Amino acid sequence: MSDNALLDALDRMPKTQPSYVRRTSRGGLVTVVLGLAMLVMIWVELSTYLKGEHDVTFDVDSHISRLLQINIDITVATPCSKLSIDLRDASGDSMHFDENSIAKDGTSFRAQISFARSKRRHMNSLNALDAPRLAGQVSRTDKYYSSKGPRDKNSGFSKTYPLISSEPACRIFGSVLTKKVTGNLHITAPTPLFMMGDMNSLNMSHVISELSFGVHFPYMAEPLDSSMEVTDDASAVYQYFLSVIPTNYYKTGRKVRTNQYSVSDYKRRPNGPAAFPGIFFKYDIEPLTMSIHNRSMSFVAFIVRLTGVLGGIWLCTNYVLRTLHRIQRLIRRTPLGRDLLDKLQASAAMPDSDTPYNQSPAQPQGSWGSTSGLYDPAYAASTPSYSLRQDSFATHRTPSSGY
């Protein structure tokens, strides 16, 4: 026989004899659990490979910029004719915005509340599943400053829906460019209206669909998006204190320069001192820069990592099963442990773990000694005995019977 034929014959031979393998329900359960665990790890590693990993660093803000883009989309439960929008910054400039800068459309306040609640539920469900990737799965478009106003199709703002001019609610939306310094954005009632005491039509309940500084980037979450405040106090005052952090986002050689913020809010007590009703946003520019790098591993590194994870799960499971089996055999060597295991196996209707792999199903349990290697004479007496002669066959009832 040639070497190749011998190798082929060896390859066709089973590596493990079937009589040495025993299938049990416990082993099948371990196989199913192990398979599910490996599928979960494959899914986790594949998601990490496709979405990449984030590396966040902080540094001193060395970028010199004179302008800051503010995007606002707020619905207030007050008619548009009784609201004014202005901004004052730390440099002393004061700006009052008209329709060419910030648009005002009449709409239904209840509809805006319903939209905000549905979006908030969607965001909360995503937050429960995967908080760092929350904003990457929430639909949002970039907002840009347009000289034609926020109703321009290139501004990124959607049309007002439902658009109802007679409704006592106003949607205020648009993008403005201001100096990159501390400032205050005010949404208030005109001073003459407040001084004349016409407070019946004022209601500062509001829904903030979006408030951001700069363009959007993936995995960006703004704390005031889809938030709302509802009140019956005509003289209610809402104050928001924002801390704006310049942010640089890097992905595949592309850099996005924008801003994020944290916020704390305050509402005047209904029984507090008299105040000018309105919604006030005070923002401060932090001297730090947050850099977010989205890095993805190579395909070779992904395969190596996946192979290592799956092989580790398989090897650890094998070690655990071997350890448990050895512990079981050590316990069985003691009389107390043997009785306990026999009772457990009898209650679970499981085969004896000490049964040798080469024992036939017709053989009674416990006919072979686990440590002495001797056979049971009673069993040998009740089994057929073959003579050395090929033409004779005899069945003996006692060990002393001769051929």
TrEMBL record:
The chain crosses the membrane at residues 27-44, 299-321. InterPro entries: Erv, Erv_C, Erv_N. The keyword Transmembrane applies. It comes from the Eukaryota. Residues 355-371 have a biased composition (Polar residues). It is found in: Membrane. Residues 168-318 form the Endoplasmic reticulum vesicle transporter C-terminal domain. One of its GO terms (biological process) is endoplasmic reticulum to Golgi vesicle-mediated transport. Residues 351-371 are annotated as: Disordered. Pfam families: COPIIcoated_ERV, ERGIC_N. Residues 8-94 form the Endoplasmic reticulum vesicle transporter N-terminal domain. Keywords: Membrane, Transmembrane, Transmembrane helix. Its main location: membrane. PANTHER family: ENDOPLASMIC RETICULUM-GOLGI INTERMEDIATE COMPARTMENT PROTEIN, ER-DERIVED VESICLES PROTEIN ERV41. This is Endoplasmic reticulum-Golgi intermediate compartment protein 2. It comes from Malassezia obtusa.
